[in-house]
Amino acid sequence: MRQYWAAKRSHPDAIVLFRLGDFFEIFFEDAVAAAPIMGVTLTSRPATGGRMPMCGVPHHSWQAYAGKLLRAGRKVVVCDQVDAAGGKSLLRREVTRVLTPGTVVEDEYLEPGKSNWLVAAWARSGRAGLAACDVSTGELQMCELAAERLPAELLRLSPSEVLTPPQIEEYRFDPERGRRTLAELLGIQYPASIGAQAAPLGVGAAGVLLEYLKQNGIRLEVGTLRVRTYSPDQVMPLDGATIRNLELGALFALLDRTLTPMGARLLRGWLWAPLCDLETIELRLGAVAELRNERESLRQALVPIGDLERLTSRAIQALATPRELVSLRRAIEALPEVARSAAQASTPGLTRWAAMIEPLPELCEQLKRAIVDDPPAVARAGGFIRPGFDPALDGILEASKEARAWIAGLEAEERQRTGIKNLKVGYNRVFGYYIEIANQNTGLAPDHYIRKQTLAGGERYLTPELKENEAIVLNAEQHRISRELELLRSLLDEITDAAAALRSTAQALAELDTLSSLAEAAEELGWTRPRVLSNLGLAISAGRHPLVEAAVSVGDFVTNDVDLGLDGTRMVILTGPNMAGKSTYLRQVALIVLLAQCGSFVPAASAEIGIVDRIFTRVGAHDDLAAGMSTFMVEMTETASMLNQATPASLLIFDEVGRGTSTYDGLSIAQAVVEYIHDSSRLGCRTLFATHYHELTALADRLPGVKNQRVEVLEEGDTVRFLHRVVPGGADRSYGIHVAALAGLPSAVVARARQILGELEAQRPLEAPEHQLGLPFAPPGDPLASEIEALELDRLTPLEALQKLYEIRSQLGRRP
Question: What is the dihedral of CA 616, 617, 622, 627, to 10 degrees?
Fold first, then answer.
């Protein structure tokens, strides 16, 4: 227990797995917390003053249980037996691993196609610093950004573990402290050498992150991490509502034709961070276009690569197994063929990555000479070093072989020499090797035989030569394993020395894999190359929703066009019944824009897309009871976020606004939102606004940037057929009762609903414009009213608002 408490005091915030025989035991509060997470029984054992809670797991399967704890966000410390003190003394136990959700590198704890980010972040005076490290791939990136952008960046990274104040004392984030840490641990003397001269808060966050890694036993030295500074402004931030509404997870599954886990992680990163830089987008599109025509040789060459990034990281952290070194060797063996295939490319988006591939023949040859082709799964089992690689190991094995051969021949030799026909040579775990002679022949035992044990039927002896060879045999296994582990450490050091080349090569392979995956998907799905431009237009011909199209029969998807921005139209008010395809149309436009700015081909006959800086979506109805927010409050909060953050270069997607409250309230809010987007000098952005408030179609007569479109339906008697075509003009009916009938409402309910609708229409015919709900328009020609309407109220400070009120009052006082 002294050993246990030493480990626990060093890591008070961790669950300690303490080795006792064939089990890892967990004690006290750790056991109470861990047992339900791991799914094991909580028990207890006697202790001073009562009983202490405990639970345990088999030592050979502890990784699976540790994985459950890590996924629950817990830190795990492994306190294992490291040696025997000798005889019957207490076994020594020490902390051998410290595992946290953001610092693990083993496959047991990771998803192959998803990055595992550890993030440190803090904010000061409206600015924020962020550093993110994926230890499993050896990437460290940092940035400085506006504080309001920090939540979106954390959402993009989706970190496994986050370090922020007050969990970490704020003084530790000091930029000067971070600069010294970078210099001390990674040899980066000047932030400018990694482009971080304008990101001091990011440097401070990186310092916190590196100190945490060192504290948790991660090997840090020059070349062990690939460090870069990035600008969040180069990518499009996506909020949680947009990620959810556009179903990016399903889109990733549709597009993922990658052949390596590295490529899958990069593809996911591209989809969650569309580009805002036109040049980089064009480089990707050009590469995809070339690979669409010529990619087979490259893709075949990528198949044996595997996860070179994570294999390299495990080697650096001295956690790679012999089998993983064989996988690493096979990946390196495949590099020349990948390089040859990539070298045939002509577009800059491919030639850059082809030039970064380093074949590393010396390291490949060393691994081939050292490790057998089919090594054991566990290094401590030994037998993984190839014969002839190391003379010292060969000497140990040869001596053991000779000693075993000598012992094997000893029985026949001693029988012949002594004339004792029933003489036996045996072995047991207590006495080791021995010579046994029956009682009737003990008088024939040679003088140099040393009596070891007396039995009922005879005597057991040993000789100095037998003892010597026994020592060679019994110690050889320990010496062999010790030497093999020493050689393994040396090989891991050689891989660490080549880490920079391996990491840059892995980055190039991931890029080539991702680009070829996009090309493969474009060919299989029949997508086309978009034109991405620097204007604020948006023109899509015969666009399709990629996920819906994949779910329906080939050729059954009804395509639609969109044209915004270039002809003065900045907003479409889209009306039409439920189930007619409004939501599909809205989402497909957003997805086509997102795909294009990721560098992907798009599901359309043609697409011209002016760069979009943000995609915002307000779709569907859902509540957030955990946050105390009703459906309508969620709807209004999402709408407010869009209006407050959007710019003229944004794309806004509204699928119903104001439906969560009464008709008059909802219509008023929806109209105000449309007018605000259209009239605000800060907005005026490309907008698709789907609504069931048909009254809003009247806005197109007054607002020059607004046009009406509807999803066409065909009425055939009492039935309605949805054509899913978007055509000019507004709808005057929602056909909700038809949809209710399609959903299977009882016929009596449907019939009664039709009766009630008829009565309401008789009271106030919906088709007569003069009986529609009126839209409140400001009286024309009133300069004071125009001045008030032009105010950006959400931009005024309290003092500016008060001054404006005084000005208005004085103008009112001067009126006749």
Answer: 0
- Residues 535, 537, 539, 545, Cα dihedral to 10°: 100
pLDDT value at 724 more than 60: yes
In Å, what is the CA distance from 289 to each residue of 263, 546, 697? 18, 19, 42
Distance separating alpha carbons of residues 722 and 278, to the nearest angstrom: 39
Task: Report which secondary-structure segment, H or E, holds 241.
Answer: helix 240-245
Give the pair of three-digit tokens for residue 791: 């105010």
Alpha carbons 425 and 414: distance in angstroms, whole number: 9
Phi, psi of 104, deg, nearest 5: -75, 155
Q: Report which secondary-structure segment, H or E, holds 108.
A: none
Q: List pLDDT tens digits, range 525-566.
A: 999 999 999 999 999 999 999 999 999 876 789 999 999 987
Q: How far, in whole angstroms, is CA 514 from its chain's centroid?
A: 15
Share of the chain residues as helix, strand and coil, in percent rounded to the nearest 5: 50, 20, 30
Is the CB of residue 190 less than 8 Å from the CB of residue 217? no
Q: What is the mean pLDDT of the chain?
A: 90
Q: How far apart are CA 328 and CA 360, in angstroms?
A: 12
Identify residue 203 by its one-letter amino acid code: V
How far, in Å, are 218, 659, 724, 758 from residue 111 at the CA level?
A: 20, 40, 39, 58
3-state secondary structure 342-402: HCCCCCHHHHHHHHCCCCCHHHHHHHHHHECCCCCCCHHHCCCECCCCCHHHHHHHHHHHH
Pairing label, strands 531-533, 450-454: unpaired
Closest CA to 606 of 691, 554, 526, 541: 541
Q: Which residue type sits at 814?
A: R
DSSP secondary structure string for all residues of 46-106:
EETTEEEEEEEEEGGGHHHHHHHHHHTT-EEEEEEEEE--STTSPPEEEEEEEE-TTT--S
The alpha carbon of 295 is separated from its chain's Cα centroid by a whole number of angstroms, namely 27
In the sheet that holds 118-124, the strands lie side by side as 161-163, 118-124, 127-134, 139-146, 226-229
Two tokens at 793? 């109220």
Amino acid identity at 127: R
| CA–CA gap between residue 622 and residue 634 (Å, rounded) | 7
Please state the φ and ψ torsions of residue 528, each to the nearest 5 degrees: -120, 160
Backbone angles phi, psi at 4, to 5 degrees: -60, -50
Give the integer Cα–Cα distance in Å for 286 and 346.
10
The pair of structure tokens assigned to 24 is: 């890892």
Q: Mind listing the pLDDT tens digit for each residue in 228-276?
A: 999 998 999 999 999 999 999 999 999 999 999 999 999 999 999 999 9
Q: What is the pLDDT of residues 762-776, one digit of tens each?
A: 775 444 444 444 455
- Check the CA dihedral 211-217-218-220 and report its sign: positive
- Spatial separation of the C-alpha atoms in residues 457 and 387, rounded to whole Å: 45
The tokens for 65 are 């249980």
Alpha-carbon span 808 to 814, nearest angstrom: 10
Tokens 């082809």 sit at which residue? 354
Q: Give, in order, the Cα–Cα distances in Å from 807 to each of 299, 688, 692, 801, 802.
A: 70, 37, 40, 10, 9
Distance CA 505, CA 638 (A): 43
User: 324: how many CB neighbours lie within 10 A of its CB?
Assistant: 20
> In this predicted structure, what is the pLDDT of residue 578?
80
**Torsion angle in degrees (nearest 10) through CA of 91, 96, 100, 103:** -170
* Nearest one of 575, 569, 607, 573 to 589, comparing CA atoms: 607
Measured between alpha carbons, how far is 1 from 6 in angstroms, rounded to an integer? Answer: 8
Higher pLDDT, 808 or 347: 347
Per-residue model confidence as pLDDT tens digits over 625-649? 667 778 888 889 999 999 999 999 9
